[in-house]
Specification:
It contains twelve helices and 14 strands. The strands form four sheets. A five-stranded antiparallel beta sheet has the order 4-5-10-6-7. Helix 10 runs antiparallel to helix 11 and helix 11 packs antiparallel against helix 12. Bound molecules: flavin-adenine dinucleotide. The site of flavin-adenine dinucleotide has 31 residues, from strand 2, helix 7 and strand 10.
């Protein structure tokens, strides 16, 4: 349970952090440490250099910006949970945040850290996919933007390269027709199946993000297509939700078999849609 030796840096600017990342081979960014530190203690990760983003003041904020809401990568789960701005303008995030782990995890763990870590059972990926969020990533050549649909590449692998830092996540404003429902692993709270639904009742469209069920989070596009242009009734939602795993192979592990995860995905898709439609 003791990590291997490493050098520690706490830069005070993003430029310095990027420079350190470029200069040090085998360096890792540290955000809240709630995934990286346990991995280091188990020696699943053995970085030679740690670059702690905790000293950079301007990576932690939630603000309205150009018709969207911009969230700094170092914003904690608790800061999102307690944000009046998000409760008003993007309530999916304030509904999801309290469902993550426990108080200690939410006080230290960060939005950006969770998204870059891309644990297949993490909650945030379902929400950012359903919201079609935009990610801003800084690297040696400047900044680039990536849409949520292109961000999650494989299990625990994202579009953020080893020499890059995720700086900001931008989400659209929505009304209250949203919901996040999950079936949690009892000890950790991680999602065995988690479904985020974002409805546009006027345009009669639904966006559905699913986590926990497959090696990487995904949009349930077969469900979305089935519902497009239709009135949301208990029957239309029931019929569409059956398609929740049409595009993926469900995971099976010690927590749940593939068959059980498939069942949970369909049931939670139906419940998330029903709840969002009722709001
Ligand atoms: C007991 C326990 C229960 C938990 N329960 C849940 C749960 O129910 N749901 C859930 O979703 N999560 C859960 N988590 C995970 C938690 O949400 C962590 O906050 C999250 O996984 C990682 O965020 P972090 O800020 O701690 O990142 P860190 O552990 O510091 O970093 C994680 C990885 O991301 C990289 N990284 C971090 N930030 C950046 C950045 N800005 N740019 C580039 N790379 C970066 C790091 O190098 C590292 O590889 C739990 C964790 C614990 C310990």
């Amino acid at each position: 349970m003791i990590p291997s030796a490493f050098d520690y840096h706490r830069p005070s600017s993003l430029d310095d952090a990027l420079r350190l990342l470029g200069q040090n081979e085998d360096a890792k960014i540290l955000a809240g440490g709630h995934s990286l530190v346990p991995a280091m203690k188990l020696r699943l990760a053995q970085p030679k250099t740690i670059i702690d983003l905790g000293g950079i003041a301007n990576l932690n904020y939630i603000r309205e910006q150009g018709g969207q809401i911009a969230i700094g990568a170092m914003t904690t789960h608790f800061e999102i949970e307690s944000s009046d701005l998000l409760r008003e303008l993007c309530p999916l995030l304030t509904e999801l945040a309290p469902k993550i782990g426990d108080v200690q995890v939410r006080n230290r763990g960060t939005f950006g850290g969770s998204l870059v870590h891309a644990d297949p059972a993490a909650d945030w990926p379902a929400a950012v996919l359903a919201l079609d969020a935009e990610f801003e990533i800084a690297g040696p050549a400047g900044r680039r933007k990536v849409r949520a649909g292109d961000f999650f590449l494989e299990m625990m692998q994202t579009a953020v390269q080893p020499n890059e830092i995720l700086c900001e996540i931008r989400v659209p404003k929505t009304d209250r027709s949203v919901a996040y429902i999950k079936f949690a692993q009892k000890a950790s709270g991680f999602a065995i199946a988690g479904v985020a639904a974002v409805l546009n009742k006027t345009g009669r469209t639904a966006a559905i993000g699913v986590t926990g069920v497959a090696p990487k989070p995904y949009r349930a596009t077969a469900v979305e297509m089935e519902l497009r242009g239709k009135e949301l009734t208990l029957e239309s939602i029931r019929v569409a939700s059956v398609k929740a795993i049409d595009e993926i192979e469900p995971l099976g592990d010690i927590h749940a078999s593939a068959e059980f995860r498939a069942h949970l995905a369909r049931v939670h898709c139906r419940r998330a849609l029903e709840l969002a439609a009722s709001r």
